[in-house]
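Q: Could you fold this chain for me?
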Amino acid sequence: MSARSKARKRALDILYQADIRGDDLGVTLAAEAKRAANEPAREASWLYAREIVDGVIDAQSEIDEQIVTHARDWKLERMPAVDRAILRMGVWEILHNDQVPTAVAIDEAVELAKEFSTDDSGSFVHAVLARIARS
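A: Sure. Below is the predicted structure, expressed as structure tokens.
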């Protein structure tokens, strides 16, 4: 598994944890940063995970608006928390990270959805992110 794939899993953990607990995302990120400081072997995945989460924090309103606009009849709060976290991460990569090809961002998000969410989540995440990428 690539360092970026590992980083996406770490970012997913942070985004999901903050959402489920109702905590401020910045506070959750800071707590993870303290833990990451004691894990130098995982520094490569931590750096990109932090970049993702910082990016989601900076653009969350825009990201959530894109998700709601392209989710077709799905309110953000009705989506499983894992799907919300994966979509936020995928939208950030598509809209704000030119180093990641759109197809890679979508594929990685779909794989995370298949692994960590419902049976239908992979196709749901794919559909929403594909619509965003086309817009």
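A (continued): The helical segments are 3-21, 25-37, 43-70, 81-96, 102-116, 121-134.
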